[in-house]
TrEMBL record, chain A:
Compositional bias of kind Basic and acidic residues: 297-308
Keywords: ATP-binding, Cell inner membrane, Cell membrane, Membrane, Nucleotide-binding, Translocase, Transport
Protein name per its UniProtKB record: Peptide ABC transporter ATP-binding protein
A family per Pfam: ABC_tran
UniProt-annotated location(s): Cell membrane
GO CC annotations, alphabetized: plasma membrane
Region (Disordered): 289-308, 330-356
GO biological process: peptide transport
PANTHER family: ATPASE AAA-TYPE CORE DOMAIN-CONTAINING PROTEIN, OLIGOPEPTIDE TRANSPORT ATP-BINDING PROTEIN APPD
Classification via PROSITE patterns: ABC_TRANSPORTER_1, ABC_TRANSPORTER_2
Organism of origin: Halarchaeum nitratireducens
Domain (ABC transporter) ranges: 6-275
Taxon lineage: Archaea, Methanobacteriati, Methanobacteriota, Stenosarchaea group, Halobacteria
From TrEMBL, chain B:
N-terminal signal peptide: none
Protein name (database record): Peptide ABC transporter ATP-binding protein
Family the entry assigns: Belongs to the ABC transporter superfamily.
ABC transporter domain ranges (all copies): 23-276
Length: 356, 374
């Protein structure tokens, strides 16, 4: 296997607090994204998914970041200057956020916003001097005959927006939530990136719309060989969209592996609990399996395994370290008691109900 | 499957006597006036958002009725209108045999004790400057139920029942986590010992493990306190787990209703079917592709003519869909199951033989349908 596109090793991110109670949002996260794959980063709110993503893009300037490795195509991202990072953000790594309405500029047409990215990062021969951008922005608008505008329309079509020519001349508020999310994806694609980081891209949408956006993302991966780091708390989304999954809990990775392994043979007690809590298939009135308790405060996280206070299998050993075990080349878990000593695995189902 | 002609609810003909009917709405409407310019108002052309447009809903004692549909279809407005947080524009609401749509003053206050609404965002129902113990105990005072130590005891007991700690009585809302706040919201709704509780997306903002905890709690409380629920949600997996019966809303109207089993095993309306095909699935992730519903949600001020779903409908038949609003009819052989759709009225053979017109043909039908209509 060639080098992964993105490698994160032992990432720790701390938000310093003058009172001394620093928030350790991310605590030793490792993950790698291969070219062309969809990699799911899943976990509860507050588990550090977004902080991990933003650190990769170096978007957090008030945090202390350390990592034994943070590399994109083998290049150290922590060593790059802000100017070099800007180039990475548009040309190499695109970004899609949960809330498209606040991420898009309300007073610019969506075509204009995409064309701007095309000019700065794409392969068109148009001036991007401050003066000409200002003129476009405030006076003339992008001419409909330029390559950047045509590319913008094309991108809107690629992401499945009907009547792309007309839509390109509309403002964000004139589009539906699903269409705005597609515009964001088009904008992320405009710089021809190899990786798109999508942070809860469909969380605010109806399932009927979400299904379309996720299909779109999968097709983009296949057609353009773009890799996607898909951040979500929704296990259903992960199950039907991703090739690989990394499960986070309270700032740490609990388990990662191919999607089928994670859903069919989860190795970490937390992943098991997570899958059992899904109401899918449960009958009216059934008691759902739960994980009692709640996640630890990131300002005051215990040493060792962060899950140990809620874990049915925790022992003394879990209080001091979090060892990594490989179940296969790709499937790893971080737990003292998994795999079980005898090498066998629990028979785990993904719902409390047996198949009907 | 063909349909019969009865368009009223077939509930009366149940052979086993159904439990007492606790709530019934008939033709319930809630319109919001848009703030138009002065001229529009002078000429009486104020546009209205038809958030709820003629809904019949029945809730029997002890059952949970689900309301599902896309964002903006009017679920929350329905919930707030039937609990009289909003005044209905038209139609009636009968609660425990009494017409409550005209209630005001003291009657309304008494009603509030028996009918509770749990907001989507528990924070919005709590005073940020009051301890959660005070907020939960407040209704006891408002309704003259208890005061002093009796009040304190009642709140403390309920806190324990909700899985909260007594020490959290003195916490302020911002000091609690999302799951804890949701429990406080439940406590506040239950403190007056109501008969009916309307939950508006009670677990949508919660992670799956917290969601399971709260759903278990909601289920347990129903048995313990003999409660009836209306459960508003867009999460079909959750609704399936919690509800006895379900109403599917689209553009302010109920397009299909039935028992949970009827809707999931034998969905009739093309919208319900599309909704079910789009649900994410962990268990069937290889067997089933999720499908999107094309097009955009309908305008709430100027909904499509005829069947409001027609511009997005994968089964679209002909001009009737554009010009004739389908009536709500019982599904033959499926007691209590009702649907409003021209296609669903066709026989199985006709449905199978039917190919929806393609884009151009459909546009022609739309144009003719629209002009043929007054
Ligand atoms: N107070 C109000 N004034 C004007 N319009 C309103 C008001 N409340 C709701 N609406 C409109 O009524 C329609 C139905 O809204 P409602 O909040 O009932 O939808 P919903 O089904 O609960 O959606 P969601 O799933 O997003 O919560 C929408 O078009 C909404 O914009
Ligand atoms: S009435 Fe016509 S348009 Fe409406 S749902 Fe049925 S087939 Fe579709
Ligand atoms: Mg709502």
């Amino acid at each position: 296997m060639s080098d992964p596109l993105l490698t994160v090793e032992d990432l720790a991110v701390t938000f310093p607090d003058p009172d001394g109670s620093d928030t350790r949002a991310v605590d030793g996260v490792s993950l790698s994204v291969e070219a062309g794959e969809i990699h799911g980063l899943v976990g509860e709110s507050g588990s550090g998914k977004s902080v991990t993503a933003r650190t990769v893009l170096r978007l957090l300037d008030d945090a202390d970041v350390s990592a034994s490795r943070l590399a994109y195509r083998g290049e150290d991202l922590l060593a790059k200057s802000e100017r070099e990072m800007r180039a990475v953000r548009g040309d190499e790594i695109g970004m899609v956020f949960q809330d498209a309405l606040s991420a898009l500029n309300p007073v610019m047409t969506v075509g204009e916003q995409i064309a701007e990215v095309v000019r700065h990062h794409g392969d068109v021969d148009e001036s991007t001097s401050l003066l000409s951008e200002l003129r476009r922005k405030y006076v003339t608008g992008t001419s409909k005959s330029t390559a950047s505008w045509r590319r913008a329309v094309e991108l809107l079509e690629t992401v499945g927006i009907p009547d792309p020519e007309q839509r390109a001349s509309e403002y964000p508020h004139q589009l539906s939530g699903g269409q705005r999310q597609r515009v964001m994806i088009a904008q992320a694609l405009a710089g021809d990136p190899s990786l798109i980081i999508a942070d809860e891209p469909t969380t605010a949408l109806d399932v009927t719309v979400e299904a379309g956006i996720l299909t779109e993302l999968r097709e983009l991966c296949a057609d353009f060989n773009v890799a996607i780091l898909l951040i979500t708390h929704d296990l259903g989304v992960v199950a039907q969209t991703c090739d690989h999954v990394t499960v986070m809990y309270s700032g740490s990775v609990m388990e990662h592996g191919p999607t089928d392994d994670i859903f069919e043979a989860p190795a970490h007690p937390y992943t098991e609990g997570l899958l059992r809590s899904i109401p899918e298939g449960a009958k009216r009135g059934d008691e759902l399996a739960t994980i009692p308790g709640s996640a630890p405060d990131p300002r005051d996280r215990p040493a060792g395994c962060p899950f140990r206070d809620r874990c049915p299998e925790a022992t003394e050993a879990c209080t001091d370290s979090l060892p990594e075990h490989a179940l296969s080349a790709e499937h790893h878990t971080y737990c003292h008691h998994r795999p079980h000593e005898d090498g066998g695995r629990d028979d785990v189902r993904t719902s409390p109900q047996p198949e009907r | 499957m063909s349909t019969t002609d009865t368009d009223s609810t077939s509930e009366q003909n149940d052979s086993t006597a159904p439990p007492r009917e606790l709530l019934r709405t008939a033709g319930l409407k809630k319109y919001f006036a848009l703030n138009d310019g002065l001229l529009d108002r002078v000429f009486g052309e104020t546009a209205h958002v038809k958030a709820v447009d003629g809904v019949n809903l029945t809730v029997r004692a002890g059952e949970t009725v689900g309301v599902v549909g896309e964002s903006g279809c009017g679920k929350s407005t329905l919930g707030r209108t039937l609990t009289r947080l909003y005044d209905p524009t038209d139609g009636s609401v009968i609660f425990d045999g009494e017409h409550i749509e005209t209630y005001s003053g003291r009657d309304l206050k008494a009603l509030r004790r028996r009918v509770q609404y749990v907001f989507q965002d528990p924070m919005s129902a709590l005073n940020p400057r009051k301890t959660v113990g005070e907020s939960v105990g407040k209704p006891l005072e408002v309704h003259d139920i208890a005061s002093g130590t009796e009040r304190t005891d009642r709140v403390a007991n309920l806190f324990e029942e909700m899985g909260l700690m007594r020490s959290q009585l003195d916490a302020y809302p911002h000091e609690l986590s999302g799951g804890q706040l949701q429990r406080v919201g439940l406590a506040r709704a239950l403190i007056t010992e109501p008969d009916l509780v309307v939950f508006d997306e009670p677990v949508s903002a919660l992670d799956v493990t917290l969601q399971a905890q709260i759903l278990n709690l909601i289920n347990r409380l129903q048995g313990e306190y003999d409660l009836s629920y209306v459960f508003i949600s867009h999460n079909l997996n959750v609704v399936r787990h919690v509800c006895d019966r379900i109403a599917v809303m689209y553009a302010g109207e109920v397009v299909e209703r039935g028992t949970t089993e009827q809707l999931f095993e034998n969905p009739q309306h093309p919208y319900t079917r599309a909704l079910l095909r789009s649900v994410p699935s962990v268990r069937e992730r290889h067997e089933r592709e999720r499908e999107e519903l094309p097009g955009s949600p309908p305008s709430a001020t100027n909904p499509p003519s005829g069947c409001r779903f027609h511009p997005r409908c994968p089964e679209f038949i002909d001009g009737r869909c554009v010009s004739e609003a389908p009536e709500t009819r019982s599904v033959a052989g499926d007691q209590g199951h009702e649907v409003a759709c021209h296609w669903a009225e066709l026989s199985v053979e006709k449905r199978e033989a039917h190919t929806p017109p393609d884009g151009a043909a459909r546009e022609t039908i739309e144009r003719e349908g629209a002009s043929g209509e007054k």
